[in-house]
Amino acid sequence: MPNKEHRILISKSVGCVRYVYNHFLGKAKKNEYLTYTKYCKQLTQLKKELEWLKKPDKFALQNALKDLDRAFKNKWIKFRKSKEVKAEIINVTVTRTNTDKYYISVAVKEEIKELPKADKQIGIDLGLKEFAITSDGEKIDTPKVLKKYEKKIVRLNRSLARKEEGSNNWHKVKKKLSKVHEKVRNIRLDFLHKLSTKLIRENQRICLETLKVKNMLKNSKLAKSISDASWSKFVELLTYKAKWYGRNLVKIDTFFASSQICSNCGYKNEKVKDLSVRKWECSECRKIHDRDINASKNILNDGLKIKASTT
Ligand SMILES: [Zn+2]
Predict the structure, then answer these.
(1) What distance in Å separates the CA atoms of residue 207 and residue 180, rounded to the nearest whole number?
(2) 96 with 76: CB under 8 angstroms?
């Protein structure tokens, strides 16, 4: 058990160690980071200015500098911040991609406030030509730049096929290909985040048809454009954002003939089964429909029925 005198010395030493550590950390943060030896010289100088720093054991203070030096040698890296971290940090993970890029993900604890209620509701249909079509009549295209990179991927794949597997050139092309794929992934994710946030902000209820994805994926020709469009990722983002912000996401699971039914009068036009029919006129109410916008209106109508039966 340390006596009173010891305890005072210990607590003073701890205070001095902390002072020294923070003093030099402050300098390091201002880009005045030097080596351990140079800091030791500065510490001697500092001791002349601050009499009380002479009290604790000099090794304790030097150890503080060693710790600081080690911390900087191991962790001092520049990084690009995609977002300001304002909440309490729980965990930091560093990952390396196969294109030698490093990403830092920061898990934070933050209380998310629900958004004020919105008056609008929307139905969304998965498009083939466009990414999505809304019951508002809007056709949302994937970013044009993705098409450019997709062409590049096709070109690089062809070039890779001509190279001898495992050769230097083969590895070069393979690396280039990974880079383009990574770019495509990032652009697409950014697009999906922005779109899902916008929809969540503007609408209280969002109705989507989800089973269609599975049905369509069986058809390999359609599969490419659907997986490219990342519909399932989009649904995933909408799902958690709806939960966060107090919105109602209705996933319509039953395979429902959204394209064939007239959203105005309910008449079913079997001819619309054929994917080549882009525009049609309802023989009952004479309303002229754009195939996809009509489908998204039906998705909304169906999603609203669910609301009526559950509330
Ligand atoms: Zn009709």
Answers:
(1) 33
(2) no
pLDDT tier at 258, thresholds 50, 70, 90: confident
pLDDT value of position 82: 74
Higher pLDDT, 76 or 87: 87
Tokens of 5: 């005198």
- C-alpha 259 to ligand 1 mean position (Å): 12
Which long-range contacts link 256-259 to residues 24+ away (Cβ below 8 Å)? Answer: 256/209, 256/298, 256/299, 256/302, 258/125, 258/209, 258/212, 258/295, 258/296, 258/298, 258/299, 258/302, 259/291, 259/292, 259/294, 259/295, 259/298
Tokens found for residue 301: 């109508």
Taking the centre of ligand 1 as the mean of its atom positions, its distance from the CA of residue 243, in whole angstroms, is: 35
Q: How far apart are CA 257 and CA 274, in angstroms?
A: 12
Residue 209 CA to ligand 1 centre (angstroms): 21
Is residue 231 classed as helix, strand or coil in its secondary structure? helix
Q: Concatenated DSSP letters for 271-309?
A: GGGSTT--EEE-TTT--EEEHHHHHHHHHHHHHHHHHHH
Q: Which residue has the higher pLDDT, 36 or 74?
A: 36
Q: How many CB atoms lie within 10 A of CB 46?
A: 16
CA of 41 to the centre of ligand 1 (A): 87
Token duo for residue 90: 């729980």
* Residue with more model confidence, 210 or 119: 119
Mean pLDDT of 114-142: 90
First to last CA, the chain: 68
Q: What six digits make up the tokens of 255?
A: 């395979």
**What is the CA(213)–ligand 1 centre distance, in A?**
26
| φ/ψ (deg, to 5) at 133 | -130, 130
The residues that are catalytic are 125, 209, 292
Residues 6+ apart with CB under 8 A from 231: 126, 213
